[in-house]
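This part of the workshop introduces the protein records we will be handling. To make this concrete, we reproduce a full record directly below:
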Amino acid sequence: MFPTTSRKTSFDPIPDSSPPTSQAQAKQVVVPTASSGTVRGPENSGRVFVQTKLAEKNLHSPHRSKPFLANSVNLCRETGLLLSKPRLSSETPTVIATTYGDRGTHSRAANVAANLVLDLNLMFEEKLQHAIEHEPHFTAELKKIIELIHKQLDIESIVLPPDTPLGKEHRSSRLDFLFNKFQNYFPLEPLKRLFEERDGSDSTITAFLAKHPISKDVDETEKASVIGYMKLLKMLFGQFPYFGGSVEYKQGIENSMEYWIYHLSTITRDPDRSIPIGKNCYGHLLLKPLADYRTRESGLVPLMNQRNLGTGVAEAEWNELSKAMKKSLENGVYQFREKRLPERSGKHIQDEKYSRKFNKLMSGIAKETGKPSDQLSIEEIWTAANEDERKFLYGDIAEIPWSDAHLHGGESFEQTYNTHINAEELDYRHPLVTSEREVGLMNVAGVHGNILEKPEVACEKYIKEIRRKLNIPRDSAEFHIRDSEFGIHYSSDFLKRDFISKQKDWYDSAYNNQRPIVGGMSGHTLGYLNLYCAAVDKWAAQRKEQKDQPIPFPSLETFRAILLAALIGNKRHHSYDEVMAASVGMKFATDQGPGLTYKDRVGYRDIFQSSDPALQQCARHAAAEVDQVYLALEYDTVLSAIELNQSGLRKNLEEPVKQYFQALRSGDADQIVEAKIEIEEKINDKINDL
């Protein structure tokens, strides 16, 4: 393990379980489309309060957004296809399977049953996330954690006095700090323009650094720190929910757990939480020199979490995208060209902006390829676009990452935010009220931000990235990373085995047990827990004479519960399994035991039998209502997709579904397995495999 201290130095609709289009349009609100984009209400319809509109939207029946898994697989859509065909074609060969439609080793009935169990687990996690997030105890505990981090860790950008109460001024004070810091390295007037524009896109920051390079007189360690602060600046600028960011953080909505979680995220990316580079350090040996990516020997995450299975969508080539992503992109761009691009009376200001940008992009690609812009395929457009342009296509044109799932779980905006927002400042999809649109009930779902690749594919990229950073010749079959001063000696063979075996072990367990797969093992979880451990360990080291006294701060198990609320379910960044797996082995320096564990990889016994009474209560609360809620949903569940394609089967499955949720509540793995078998037998009785 690396040491952690250093010296001071256009598609036919496929039946799934979606509500009829006419019903969705009649409500005149922003709703998800089949491509995960949005359908808009009437132009210039005036201001509508979020509370009123959300109540109207949910008045007629319970609502749930479409259940998506990693690689943008719509679970209901796939189940509908599976019931209409004997076998589905294989997915993109480089990505992992997250559902069971093309599983060739099992019967069709078994695959439908597995999709149903997967959806039941997903639904329970949605209810669990909501229960924890809206339990005030956990937000209060999170604030205690952050307060300790502020006081104990030497993070220069947190410039407020130690006794200053936690509050919304943290972001603005850190921006002031960065502006003053950067004056030592960049000319004042261009720097002022950068801060006035508040554009955190990669292209803007890259262009600024290219035009105003850091002086050659600045040493390597200091230069790395400046670049790190630039990355932090991007996070502080980019406070809209678009490929990262948090509206809550920008608007200072302190009663939202999301505000504090994003604040934590900015701290883990602060240069003061980086492993330094240079002659007396070893950060230059790492792809991600982050102190809070430290892994434990008993942990499940590969060494120092230098790479996971995910590749950002905007970084992926066309042949690396999943089939679902390709279809959604093609459909989304087509819809934009047909409905939003043409000039019309009352065209929204954001559509005007996107149309200009889209036309400019198309003209450039047409010139480059020698083809008329209206004849360019989406593959040609994607291939020619750079990373920022791909984000624009994926997020603003096709609208794929945007989701309203969090609002159905009770997110804070519809309860607390009723302020007029300038339409030029905010996109109409943001979860805020504008004066020219109906409510934009949208945020970005992390599940749509990455593709999850097979361990061998991701590992090949990992090794290539190491070779590129360390200038290792391609013709050397094996290489070694050494630094005797810090006790570092790892071979490329070890790094491959460590990465592939740990990622494969996690994936096989999750897939075989119908665990939702959303973003891969959670690096956020690892980083946040390490950050907290560092603060507690420093506090404890200052009180050696009181080492036998209990630590008067929230437990790691409580903090892990907070991370479940921040990342899983309707947050759509990770799953329960991905958070729990990433946490294994985490402990304070004073702990004598194994640290955090994850014993039940089939059910949810770890939370039903948690040492935190509040978490137990939330788990019981979620379990007490999940079966009634699931069975009441008319759309957007695997059960309703089954009924739509196999009429009458739902009635036979309702009792086994209740039994499955009862088994989850019991925490008994044998009962869970029996309930799964019962579901499969009921489906098998009705489905004749071809």
Remarks:
- The longest strand covers residues 480-483.
- The two ends are 52 Å apart (CA to CA).
